[in-house]
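Case study 2.
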Amino acid sequence: MEPLCKRQGALVAWYDPQGFSRPDLLDEAVDAILRFIASKERLVDDFQDGMQFRVGWSSLTLRAGENGFVLCEPDFSTGALVDHVTVSAQIAAMQQRLNTRTNTAYSPCHCFETVGLFEGALEVPDLLLVRSDRMSPVHSGWMITPRNRRDAALQELPSCLLLGTRPHLLQALSLPDGSLVTVSGEEILAVRDVENNDLLGDGDDEPTWLPQEEAPRTAGWLDRLFGS
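Prediction:
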């Protein structure tokens, strides 16, 4: 399947639906991204090359082209910009779908905000994700821990690092404070609120993310950025 293009006014968004189980959700996410950035035009007078916008979990940059401003997302393997919004739209679709299923407010962390991660957590299938107090000004409030082991060392890493390891976890990062998420492999088993109510309920749990081997990989530029 060829990459697709959507426009709204002077804005242009390219994205590639290949490999997604729900391209209809991806289409809706791209439309929402375009509407959100278009709504900002009055606040900035006019769009200009290089303008950046935080859009949910991601950050998008405008690049002036012959036919308008192309929305560009970061390439998390190099730190450079790429002229599409495929990953940003996918994550937005995943997150919005889970928020809808759980009837919760959309409360995304940013790709460069951090998660608390217990050492070795991403190598085991069974995890707990908890959103509570912030560890630092850039911390999202999310902690990721093995379900059966919590005695490991704790580290703080940017949430975008999950793209190269456990990308399906990103869908949970838009749940609000007080959320407790139970994960096994690539499946979310339960979502509970601060009062221990089960929010997930029954419904279609077909995954919307790419297989892990096709997920974007992070690289050394992030280590340099965060001093790791």
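The chain is about 20% helix and 30% strand.
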